[in-house]
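Case 119 in the screening queue. Each case pairs one protein sequence with one candidate compound; here the compound is zinc ion. For every case the pipeline is the same: read the inputs, emit a complex structure as tokens, and attach any notable structural observations.

Predict complex for case 119.
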Amino acid sequence: MITASCHCGAVRIEIAEPPKRLTECNCSICRRLGALWAYYTRDQIVFDMAPDATVGYAQGDKTLETHHCRTCGCTTHWSGLGPENPDRVAVNARLFAPEDRAGIPVRHFDGADTWTFLD
Ligand SMILES: [Zn+2]
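Case 119 output:
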């Protein structure tokens, strides 16, 4: 069990299985957020937070919405929007404890241009 939590603790995300890999993406939003994504489906994680604890932001074609903690500002996760990927979610692994992240490989995704992995 991994628990990701924002700095103030208002947002906690419980994950039963550690991710096999983490993804760093260079697209216009990910590079600004500095997030390191661990991908899941919605049924694999549990949010422990008030319904209004995060603020969502949907950019561009609005296929997903990034969220940050309303209190401390940490980027916590993104959720898929729309009919294509309603169950997709990614947790920001920068909110993991360092020991929970250790040893998990990081892949670099070229979301800015070719939409392929660079490594
Ligand atoms: Zn917070």
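Case 119 observations:
- The first strand starts at residue 2 and ends at 5.
- The beta strands are 2-5, 12-15, 22-25, 37-41, 45-48, 54-58, 64-69, 75-80, 88-92, 106-109.
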